[in-house]
Amino acid sequence: MKKIDRRKALKNLGLGIGIIPFISNALTDADDVNKQSKTISAAEFDNPNMDKPITVITLGAGSRGNTYGNYGVKFPNQLDIVGVAEPIAIRNERYAQKHDIPDENRFTTWEHVFERPKFADAIIISTPDNLHYAPCMKALEMGYDILLEKPIAPTEKECRDILNLAKKTGRIVAVCHVLRYAPYFKKLKDMIDSGAVGELISIQHFEPIEHIHMSHSYVRGNWHNSKETTPIILAKSCHDLDILRWLVGKPCKSISAFGSLKWFKASNAPAGSTQRCTDGCAVEASCPYSALKIYHRDRQRTYVFDFPEDKSTHGDFILEQLKTTNYGRCVYKMENDQPDHYITSMEFEDDITVNFSMEAFTSYHGRRTRIMGAMGDIVGDMDQFVHTDFLTKKVTKWDMNVEDVGDYKNSGHGGGDWALVSDWIQAVRKQDPNLLTSTIDASVESHIMGFMAEKSRESKQIVAIDLK
């Protein structure tokens, strides 16, 4: 077994904070697979050679805006947040304090930013899904480079509009397909490209959303209604479509999808349930989706609440939020329409087939992937994967467990979030989009796959993919 212990390896190599460890491309060069040597190379977040940081304005100071902005707190020589637009006052204030943003560069909405002449190098767009298109188009018109949270936009036309304007203006648009930057998926890509499984035949990929995550984000949360945001295949799984397109390395020709909203609807509401979990619901104690249990008793996913500074009041504050926001409403009595199970089958060029399943009703999360080739296969779950060589019968286990090593723990999606920001900074600095793993062209292509999947699901027909 090949075990990559990041904490021990970094210690042995004398590597410090701000470094992402990656595994070398070496696969099998020893007779005994359990005694193979292992080599770790490192890609540093920090770049001391930058003479000055790129300056950035953040539109949307919520969770994602803070994730990307925090890179600038740790590495101010690379990224300097000089402005923010955020309508929620407490978020605006906290973001401004964190990044020492002057009052004149604090704005309520994104429109206010563009009333000023261009005053930064780039824009981070981390607004809600339905507020991606307009600020992105305006930023491109004004000459800003852009880091754009996924999905690109709610419609295929808007995605194509952004692509065309990016081409016309020559500006850099990096879509936050952060899984491409995670060491786990980078290694899978290396394995396929190196011929470790021979000719690629098929992939099976599974995204378990986890039942509480589903109820939180796609039943009660911001993405509960596809018409107001984007379909769940894009809102949640455009990461996966992008990863699959990247792993295959060839265009998708056709797609077929099935799925529905089966459980989180009024017909399944138990007798005695109320409009809110705080209204004296008779079945609250026995409901796994109880808002009182999730948010108040277990204190899960409370990052959505903008807590006051006084921690002693947080319990009462949560209860108040449950009485006044969607997070306290019964999961069976929302205006949600997102499917809670979704299966997509794809045919790529060269007769490569891919199956993707997104499921709400799991007790766990973390993507699972099976890669089948003519000369070997790979089975993985984001913590580890196992490669089997059909000819030699050698089985190699790669342990990709990410431990809290230095700044690695501050970067989500298996280390992908900050790795993306690091590459984007260099692309903006050198004005070279080829420094990005995922260009706007590739991102739009995988989004079109998502739009066509939704068309297939609704029409119950196989849909051809037209990328022109």
UniProtKB/TrEMBL annotation:
Pfam families found in the cross-reference section: GFO_IDH_MocA (PF01408), GFO_IDH_MocA_C (PF02894)
Gfo/Idh/MocA-like oxidoreductase N-terminal domain location: 56-176
Superkingdom assignment: Bacteria
The Gfo/Idh/MocA-like oxidoreductase C-terminal domain, residue ranges: 189-463
Protein name, per record: Gfo/Idh/MocA family oxidoreductase
Naturally occurring in which organism (per UniProt): Litoribaculum gwangyangense
